[in-house]
Amino acid sequence: MSAPGTTKLLEVRDLAVAFETRGGMIHAVNGVSYALETGETLGIVGESGSGKSVHVLAMLGLIPKPPGRIARGEVVFQGRDLLALPDKALRKVRGGEIGFVFQDPMSSLNPAMTVAAQIVEPLRIHLGLAGAAARRRARELLDLVRIPDAGSRLDQYPHEFSGGQRQRVMIAIAIACKPKLLIADEATTALDVTIQAEIIALVRELKREIGMAIIWITHDLGVVAGIADTVQVMYAGRILERGPVDDIFSDPRSAYTLGLLRSLPDLGVRDVRRLRLQPIEGTPPDMRLPPAGDPFAPRNRYATPRCFLEAPPLSQAPGAAPGHLVAAWYDLPGQLARERPTP
Amino acid sequence: MSGAEAAPATVTAARSAPVAAEPGPLREIWFRLRARPSAVVGLVIVLALVGMAVFADWIAPYDPSATNWGAVRTAPSLAHPFGTDEVGRDLLSRIIHGARASLAAGLTSVALAVTLGLPLGLLAGYAGGVIDGAIMRLTDALLAIPFLILAIALAAFLGPSLTNAMVAIGLSATSIFVRLSRAQVQAITAEEFIEAARAVGNPPWRIALRHILPNIVPAILVQATLTIAAAIIAEASLSFLGLGQQPPAPSWGSMLNVAKNFLDQAPWMAIWPGVSIFLAVLSFNLLGDGLRDALDPRQRN
Questions:
Q1: pLDDT digit string (tens) for A53-98?
Q2: Mean pLDDT, to the nearest integer, of B102-114?
Q3: Do B12 and A149 touch (CB under 8 A)?
Q4: A125 vs B201: CB contact, 8 Å cut-off?
Q5: A112-121 pLDDT, tens per residue?
Q6: Domains (range + CATH), chain B
Q7: Nearest CA to A82 among A93, A96, A68, A97?
Q8: Which residue of B has its CA nearest to A88?
Q9: How many Å apart are CA A203 and CA A182, to the nearest integer?
């Protein structure tokens, strides 16, 4: 892992996103705040509907409005609030300073355009490259993402590429303008495990070469362990826990994080390994009526009465490594110790 | 293979030599179309009709408007293979020249309908909101009137001539293309690659023209081919009613109109234009169906 820099690249402050539907207002993201440093890799973990994808799409103005609406908050990227930028200025950021890789490589490339034409797009939009120069750069990018025989594959169409290769092309498009930040939204979820490992290895190499920060969104803790410096666990549109990757895995402070770790088959992390594989009981809350208290409280056996009444703030976990934050009223290590007295 | 360095280029060339070099989408469509006998039959007849229309002056044995009072309503013979009409004009020559009116009406009116309908549909589907509402209510109103009735009404309003018939047919068919292209745009806009195109920083107009438009062309092409068939019938109907091609210029529809008075004495006068209309409509329908199958994205491997 390269050491994270010290300057703040991105700062999300109290971001809230809602969707107006026939069934009522869906509060998808409810006050998310965090910062990302230059060159840092942040893994965001959470289940479907936790707001992890929606909040990054909202940052870049990629949610449809209506029905989507940014209720409040700021997203400061390199000193500018992205949410306040006019559309034209925001387009300069998208694909230029911030690259985006989507989940499904089979459907995120345009079937009617050659691969070269699609790689050239960000080069033309952001760098003003055209013609032979753009083509040369497109070829370099295909080489960079390790697609063999790049020169002859430029003029092929997406359907002539395999799933893993298409995701490599998507990554080539995302890093075409040497972005400061790469956002990967479930970028390996649709790929099989060996291809997943290849893509992750590729992204780590590219990160070393380009020096970009990464936000890696996934529901797979194994993937996060392999790539992230910092992990952030999201649930019901909130951050429940955040900290350095090793601390999150060895010393989870949120009952939800613990639940996620316990539902993993074999992670190889010593402290969690002895625990039985067990699912998290219950279902996530109805986001039309987000609970007033800790959103995980109804599924949390360690919840205290206060958890149901008042939402806990995200703050330094007592006795944990510095920068390990948790939103919980209960004391998870204490509860666990009481549950299983040491022999 | 351009731009590749010498060594890898030769390797690639050797490996991919037996296969088609650059299997672009058009080539692929052609391969799939060729595998469908009915589509090939349709294409052959269409090409034959187009050839007939283009080279009518050279292949027609007689002047289609030259009357011959010595050979009125003669049955098919060696001199007149299709027979002659009520003023002794050669029916074969009139059928050959009539292909011009039919094809011109079919192609021109559909071209007009696509030229008007596609941009409107693109705008409605992509912009949405009030613009979409306004365009679509107008389209709904036009679609509520049966195609042929609307064409007849418009042609009657514009006055009888082949050009006006084409305009009337084109305007009547426009709503089909507005509706189709809007639906296609909406379907494509929901695709993930459009979101990916936005994430790269494409402005809206570029997404509409470079990312959405090429993906709706296949559906428009299929519909256009099928609508040509409908437009040929419409032209024949308008000419039958005297609202299309004006005498003495030949048109299959107006030939049928005259022939109906002589059905018992000279049935050949009705048979040949009838068969011609039938073949023209059939061939465009066969071709359109074949194209639809060949362009079906679900059959992509």
A1: 899 999 998 888 778 888 899 999 998 899 988 989 999 999 899 9
A2: 94
A3: yes
A4: yes
A5: 889 999 999 9
A6: 40-57+91-294 (1.10.3720.10)
A7: A93
A8: B203
A9: 10
Q: What does the block give as tokens for A83? A: 């949410």
Ramachandran assignment for B206, one of left (phi > 0), alpha (psi -120 to 50 degrees), beta (any other): alpha
ipTM above threshold 0.85:
no
Contacts B3 to A, Cβ<8 Å: 132, 135-136, 139, 151, 154
pLDDT at A5: 46
Asked if the C-beta of A209 comes within 8 angstroms of chain B's C-beta atoms, the answer is: no
pLDDT in tens, A280-329: 888 888 888 878 888 888 888 888 888 888 888 888 888 888 888 888 88
Give the Cα separation of A301 and A273 in Å (integer): 21
CB contact, 8 Å: B209 with chain A? no
Nearest CA-CA distance, residue A205 and chain B, Å: 22
The beta-carbon neighbor of A152 closest among B1, B214, B301 is: B1
Q: What is the CA radius of gyration of chain A?
A: 21
Contacts of A189 in chain B (CB under 8 A): none
Structure tokens at B107: 């192609």
Q: In chain A, which residue's Cα lies nearest the Cα of B11?
A: A149
The phi and psi torsions of A211 (rounded to 5 degrees) equal 75, 30
- For residue B20, give both structure tokens: 């088609």
Check whether B276 has a pLDDT greater than 90.
yes
Segment A127-131 mean pLDDT: 88
Q: Tell me if the bond preceding A279 is cis, omega within 30° of 0.
A: no
- Residue whose structure tokens are 């008075």: B261
Token pair of B184 as six digits: 């296609």
Q: How far is A285 from chain B (nearest CA, A)?
A: 27
